[in-house]
Every structure is written in structure tokens, then in C-alpha cells.
Amino acid sequence: MSKKYQLLALDMDGTLLTDEHEISPETVKWIQEAVRQGVHVCLSTGRGFQSAYPYAKQLELSTPMVTVNGSEVWRAPYDLYRRSLMDVSLVRQMHQLAVETGSWYWAYTVERIYNRDSWTDAVEKNIEQEEWLKFGYYTEDDEIRHHILMTLQNMGGLEITNSSPHNLEINPQGVNKAEGIKQVCGLLGLEMSQVVACGDSLNDLAVIQQAGLGVAMGNAQQTVKDEADIVVAGNNEDGIAEVIREHIL
């Protein structure tokens, strides 16, 4: 009998990875067993490709990947399928907002990541020459973060999520992990009902809501737990091994 679930979509930080940014031996073992039994395992992350790929390599995955919260979808490692770029004028506005609020910020381009420390006058001058994928803010000041959120919502054209309670992550409107995984399903000839999606933050929410089985980690934000079909052990307690062992194989 064929398995009900054919694709396992894994967020990385706070989900696949422990707090030390490692994959536990137990989790590695069960992911490789899932692959051996014909399950597609797809990394679905806010990270860029260069940061995500070493983990795919460790797991010996040659399957599609979703990076930068869905701004890039890869048929296989180093084989780009689709890329969604941000409006440069919005990037300029978001940078100005970061400066005005004194927040830590970072921004992904196709080539590299900039942050508050590396955003020089030269970057500012050549902003139109870059291909931008994602912008992010970090502040532990709830009022400032709320102000940033309200301002971003008024700009329009943006998809706003987070990867921790203290940050905001911004992609082009309509670009998220759910849309990325739908594209992966298209590449693999699968339906979203055949997907198990695991995550811990708001950038995982859409795909957890739309997957056949939406899984929140034990360490997930409460909103994610509320929307998930099941809640498993945390990222430091081999929650992903639990998913594979009890719900996929």
C-alpha cells in the first residue's frame, strides 16, 4: 500500500535544527530512513540557499528545496526553478524605516546578505543594481516592532511573517513557504494533501494550514500550535524523528 504522505517539508531553525544549529543523530537516522522508503524530504526555510545547502548535503538530499521563505524554489540543489524578487522602491522604504526606528535589520539579495553593520553608503547608492529577495527586522521592543508592522502593512505589496517572536520577515506579496511547497508538489506530481509540513514560527503558518498534516514543534509559537493538526516534541527533543516514526512510515 502506498504511503498517505509522500513529501515531508521541514523548516530548519527551531524545527529540524537543535538550538545549537545541528541535526541530531536520531533525526538524521529517521530522515534517511524516510528517504530510503521513498518519501521526498524538502527543506523549507527562511535561510538562503548557501546557508541551507550544507544541511541538505549532510542529509544526502537531492530533492527540491524552498529557501528565503519561498522567494527561491530549487528543483534540486543548485538547480533553480523559480525566483521572486522584491520591488526595489519597497526595499528602500523598508531600509529607511529600519534606520528611523533604530532596529537591527538584514536583507537578502541573490548574491549575499546585508545587515545594519554592512549596509554602507555604497550599498545605498547601488540599491537598484541588486536583486532583493527578503528584508528583516529584529527588535525586542514590542512597541517599535508593532509600529514597524503597521507601517509595513500600509505600504502594501508585502508578505509579512516572522521566524521568532522578536523579528519580522518580509517577502514580496504572495511569496511564502506554502506557495513554494505547492510549486515543489507540481515538480514532483503530488498534491498538498500528501504533504507533512513541520515548523515553529509564523513563516511556517501558511504551509502548516494547507498541508495534509500540519505539524507544530513543541517549542513553536502559540499561534502555530493553535493552527496545526498535531504538536510534537520540541526541536531539541527529536520532534522530527517522532513525526516520521509515528505519522509517515
Automatic annotation (TrEMBL):
<dbReference type="InterPro" id="IPR036412">
    <property type="entry name" value="HAD-like_sf"/>
</dbReference>
<dbReference type="GO" id="GO:0000287">
    <property type="term" value="F:magnesium ion binding"/>
</dbReference>
<dbReference type="InterPro" id="IPR023214">
    <property type="entry name" value="HAD_sf"/>
</dbReference>
<dbReference type="GO" id="GO:0016791">
    <property type="term" value="F:phosphatase activity"/>
</dbReference>
<dbReference type="GO" id="GO:0005829">
    <property type="term" value="C:cytosol"/>
</dbReference>
<dbReference type="InterPro" id="IPR000150">
    <property type="entry name" value="Cof"/>
</dbReference>
<protein>
    <submittedName>
        <fullName>HAD family phosphatase</fullName>
    </submittedName>
</protein>
<dbReference type="Pfam" id="PF08282">
    <property type="entry name" value="Hydrolase_3"/>
</dbReference>
<dbReference type="InterPro" id="IPR006379">
    <property type="entry name" value="HAD-SF_hydro_IIB"/>
</dbReference>
